[in-house]
Amino acid sequence: MLERKNFYHNVLVKLPDDYLNGQDAGELSKLKYGLYSVGWCGCEMIAVYNAARDLGVKTTLARVCYEMYPKSSIAMGFFGSNVCVLGKFFDERGIEYSSTWDYNTFFNELPHCRCGILSFWNHRRVFSSLHTVMVKYVDGKIVIFNKSNKRTEPVPVDSRNEVTSKKLFIKGYLFEKGAEE
Hints:
The chain is of the alpha+beta class and 181 residues long. Helices cover 27% and strands 21% of the residues.
């Protein structure tokens, strides 16, 4: 029921028809996920939305939150979403992907894919918060979408170590084809 109330709130928030970055900045921070703001716990939903957009899926962040909340939220959104079930959004749309728990597999395959979603610990394993982002290769660089709470533009980096380390990597999803392919 909470997802329905949040959906009616979220559709009134005006977001750009573009990739979303800076989850705790501007209008994006006004969206709700569970009992909390997207600024607090919405990185997984933003990553799913950005990947869906890149893959040609017509949706909104409000719709992604509505659909995914019952399947993925942890503690009514306090801990964000379970990164192990993010693929359900794409399963329901028949979009193929692979997932991996291996850092090198993810980054070795990413240049051959349209985009990827990855989750990683922020500071140390288990005892810190985690973050989830959408990434893709563009002109030889890895571009990170929603890199941090206040960065409102995608961030291009030269190497995988600038995204996260092998020690902090949790899980990644790789998408070779989009919705229209």
